[in-house]
Amino acid sequence: MRYQITGKQIDVGEALQTHVKTELSGILEKYAGRPTDANIVFSKSAHEYVCEATVHLSTGLTAQAKSHAVDIYAAFDGCGEKMDKQLRRYKRRLKDHHKERQDPVELFGASSYILAPEAEEHEAEPETLQPVIVAEMETKIPSLSVGEAVMQMELAGAPVLVFKNESKGGLNVVYRREDGNIGWVDPQT
């Protein structure tokens, strides 16, 4: 497994890197069969340290966790606890469905755009009603079942996930509703 441990304007020493590798590998051995890589980023926000961890699993799913603490080791430990909880839930769901994915998740490319915020009301009307694109990036859209898509969305902590439905072949969307439930958009083909 490949670890990438970095700090944003923070020097991440050897002792912290060893601690992160030891603790994270222990968590991943318990729940994840074959993790491919882990990215851990430390940063500072006011008086607190922030630890953000992203682990890519061989099944194509991604687990993310984030934690804040006054001590940098405590920030990682909090992040590790969240990662442990997510992976434990993921493993339990796989067992509950009595289905293990034999093949990795199929991914296909798409474009992702970040749009500029709307102009202030007191500013003049824009010349065109087309939104201003701030950034254009390549992204991958996974081919999943609806249950796996909901699981991936929760593991990533994302409010929405676009995916290709394995059973119907069309693009679908799952999202977290304001009432806490999950919404699923399945357009007719």
TrEMBL record:
It is found in: Cytoplasm. It comes from Shimia haliotis. GO terms for biological process: negative regulation of translational elongation. Residues 130-183 form the Sigma 54 modulation/S30EA ribosomal protein C-terminal domain. The gene is hpf. Required for dimerization of active 70S ribosomes into 100S ribosomes in stationary phase; 100S ribosomes are translationally inactive and sometimes present during exponential growth. The keyword Kinase does not apply. This is Ribosome hibernation promoting factor. One of its GO terms (cellular component) is cytosolic small ribosomal subunit. Belongs to the HPF/YfiA ribosome-associated protein family. Long HPF subfamily. Keywords: Cytoplasm, Ribonucleoprotein, Ribosomal protein, Translation regulation. Interacts with 100S ribosomes. Associates exclusively with 100S ribosomes, which are dimers of 70S ribosomes. GO terms for molecular function: ribosomal small subunit binding. Gene3D superfamilies: Ribosome hibernation promotion factor-like (3.30.160.100), Sigma 54 modulation/S30EA ribosomal protein, C-terminal domain (3.30.505.50). Its main location: cytoplasm. Signal peptide: none annotated.
